[in-house]
Design brief:
Elements lengths: L9 E5 L2 H4 L12 H6 L17 H15 L3 E5 L2 H4 L9 H16 L3 E7 L5 H4 L8 H17 L5 E6 L1 H11 L9 H24 L5 E7 L3 E3 L4 H24 L4 H9 L10 H5 L5 E5 L4 E4 L10 E2 L16 H13 L5 E5 L17 H19 L4 E7 L18 E4 L4 E4 L1 H12 L3
Bound molecules: beta-D-fucopyranose.
Length: 445
Amino acid sequence: MQYVFPKDFIWGAATAAYQIEGAYREDGKGENIWDRYSHIPGRTFEGHTGDVACDHYHRYEEDIRIMKEIGLKSYRFSISWARIFHDGKGTPNQKGLDFYRRLTEKLNESGIKPAATLYHWDLPQKLQDLGGWANRDTAGWFADYAAYMFEKLGDQVPIWITHNEPWVAAFVGHWIGRHAPGITDFRTALQAAHHLLLSHGQAVRAYRDMGCSGEIGITLNMNPVYPASEKEDDKAAAGMYDEYLNRWFADPVLKGSYPAGLMAYFQEMGLLPEMDDGDMELIHQPVDFLGVNNYYSSFIKYEGSLWPIPAAETMTGRDRTQMGWEIYPEGIHDLLMRLHRDYEGVKILITENGAAFNDIVNREGNVEDDNRLDYLYRYLGQVHRAISSGADVRGYYAWSLLDNFEWGHGYSKRFGLVYVDFRTQQRIMKKSAHWYRDVIRNNGF
Ligand code: FCB
C-alpha cells in the first residue's frame, strides 16, 4: 500500500438536513428559510425543493445499513433547527428531537460515531421574520438551541460542529443572494457574518459551561488562494481574497481578531459591522478542532480594483467537475500545510471533500463513477502527503453519502458515494463507495 493513514483515523461521510431529510412539514417541523426560498419560482434549478429530497427522515435505517456496509467510522449530519423549535425558540418539539435520538442511537449501535452540525443553513423562517442573522438576538437564540441539543443528545454525540460554512451563509445568502434568504446587501452580509461568529462562540461557551465531554469545533469552507501570476497586483488581490474567504472566519475563531487589511478597507468605506466590547473574546473560545471543507482552489487575477468585488477567480485550464470547479489535488495539501503553520498545529477534521459528476446507471444497474473515484484518490493522496509533513489531520468526511438536493442546483448535481433514484428512492452504491469501503478496511490505499 502506498498511503497508510494514522491509527484511529476517522473515515466518514457527510450530509445535511435540508439536503436529504424531506418530511418538510411533518411531526411539527416549522418552516425554514430554505423551505421558503426553494418554493419561490425561479430560485432553484427547475423549481426543485427539499420537500422530499432523499426521504431520509423515513429511510434513515436503510441509510445506516448502507453506512455500515461502507464501513464508515463516523457520520456527519446536521440537525434541522425548525424540527426542534418550530419557531426557532420557545417550546421544543418532542417529535423532532425523537428523530435525532433514534438516528444517533442507531448509529452508535452500529458502531458509527455521530458528528452533528447544529447549523447547515436552514434558519427557522420565524427567526428570519425577526431579521435573521442580521439581528444580534439570533446569536442568543442559536446558543439556546445549541444548549438544548447538548443536554438532550450529548450522551449520543461525541463530535459537535456549531456552523457549516458561515462564509456561504453570510455572503452567498445575504450579498450574492443565490442562497436563502436571498438578500443582496453587503452590509447585511457582513453583519450576519459577525453574528454567525458570535453565535459560534456562545454555543462553545455553553458546551464548556455544561461540562460536556465530547469535542466541539466549527466548519469553514476554505480554499488555498494563489495569485494568477507573479505580478504585484495579482499578489495583492490574492492576499485580499484570502482575507475575505478564509481569514475573515478563521482568524476571529482561532486568533481573536479580524484580518487587518480588510478591516481597514471596511472601516474606510463605513461598512464595519456593529460589534460590542467582548465579542472578539467570546468568538475566540478554544475549539477542539477546525472543520475544513475544500473542493477546489482559487487563482486570483487583479481586475482593476481590490474591492468591492475583491478580485476575480480565474480558470487555469485544468479538468473540471460538473460544478465547474477545477480539479487541483495539490491545493488541499497546500491548504492543510498553511493552516498547520498559520494556526500553530491546529487539529483538523476534513468535514467535506468530493465531486459532482453526471452519473449514469448502466445496463447492469451499476454506477461506474471512475471520475469521482479518481478525484477522491488524488485528493486523499494529497491529504496523506500533508499528514506525512506534519499536518494534524484526524479525519476525512467524503461529501456526500447520498446524491441530494444541491441547493440552487436542485437535484441536477450528484455528489454521492451512493446513487439515489429520486423517482423511486432506490439507493445504489457507486463504484466509488465500493472503493471507499476498501480504503476504510485497509486504513489506506
Ligand atoms: C458545500 C456545502 C454542502 C454541499 C457542498 C457541495 O459548500 O456545505 O452542503 O452543498 O458544498
